[in-house]
């Protein structure tokens, strides 16, 4: 009985290290509203608005040079990100002013050590990537095609590679961390423990990438970034960690 109690105390202390729940002024209805609107806007902007605008002007992404495709991707990513921020601003405007630990960016605090620990998890993310491929391999009949990013790397176009690096290392981490760690994770703590909110938001983060071959590593990566954010209450560390991972993947593609 004493050993069980001691174990429970250890587990409880681990959860306290992760952080306490946020003060959430909205209900599940707002959480669902923001999430659904973000998914719809992401799909609408990337699959309809930008391609339709390009068609009206008189070109398609496939007809562009490597640099043109990279600029097209940057424009699409920035538009998707701004649409998501606008949705957050509109849906949460009636709850202002928000508590001080919401959407906080700060250079203060001892969060660099957490970022360093997160970077040490990168090899495990790679191992999970291989495990995921072993469990859910790409079908043999599926045609193997190079993405526009990989094509520009093969062509060694420095401008295109720089534009893609900007998308992967700056834009994507900023938008994704604001939505998944900045909004979804703390919102869920109103209805579940912090550790569970980290896991659920990480699953959502993984599903948003629409790639079953990368689900396990993305969930784990989301958990690492979620713990970092929950401990610091600061979006800057999780954005930095996200950027470092994307940069690591980009450099690996360049080999």
UniProtKB/TrEMBL annotation:
Residues 161-247 form the CAAX prenyl protease 2/Lysostaphin resistance protein A-like domain. One of its GO terms (biological process) is CAAX-box protein maturation. It comes from Olea europaea subsp. europaea. One of its GO terms (molecular function) is endopeptidase activity. Keywords: Membrane, Transmembrane, Transmembrane helix. The keyword Transmembrane helix applies. Coiled coil: none annotated. The keyword Membrane applies. It holds the Pfam family Rce1-like. This is Uncharacterized protein LOC111392396 isoform X1. The chain crosses the membrane at residues 30-50, 70-88, 109-126, 161-180, 192-209. It comes from the Eukaryota.
């Amino acid at each position: 009985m004493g050993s069980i109690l001691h174990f429970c105390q250890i587990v409880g202390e681990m959860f306290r290290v992760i952080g306490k729940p946020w003060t959430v002024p909205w209900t599940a209805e707002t959480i669902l509203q923001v999430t659904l609107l973000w998914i719809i806007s992401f799909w609408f902007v990337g699959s309809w608005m930008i391609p339709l605008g390009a068609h009206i002007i008189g070109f398609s992404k496939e007809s562009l040079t490597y640099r043109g495709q990279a600029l097209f991707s940057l424009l699409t990513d920035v538009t998707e990100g701004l649409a998501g921020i606008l949705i957050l601003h509109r849906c949460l405007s009636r709850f202002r002013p928000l508590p001080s630990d919401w959407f906080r960016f700060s250079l203060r605090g001892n969060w660099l050590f957490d970022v360093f620990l997160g970077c040490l998890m990168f090899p495990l993310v790679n191992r999970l990537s291989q495990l995921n491929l072993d469990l859910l391999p790409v079908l043999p009949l599926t045609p193997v095609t190079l993405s526009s990013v990989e094509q520009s790397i093969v062509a060694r176009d420095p401008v295109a590679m720089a534009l893609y690096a900007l998308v992967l290392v700056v834009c994507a981490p900023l938008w994704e961390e604001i939505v998944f760690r900045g909004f979804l994770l703390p919102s869920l703590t109103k209805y579940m423990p912090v550790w569970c909110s980290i896991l659920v938001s990480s699953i959502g983060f993984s599903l948003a990438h629409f790639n079953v071959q990368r689900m396990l590593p993305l969930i784990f990566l989301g958990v690492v970034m979620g713990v970092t954010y929950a401990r610091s209450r600061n979006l800057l560390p999780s954005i930095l960690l996200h950027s470092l991972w994307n940069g690591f993947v980009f450099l690996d593609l360049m080999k």
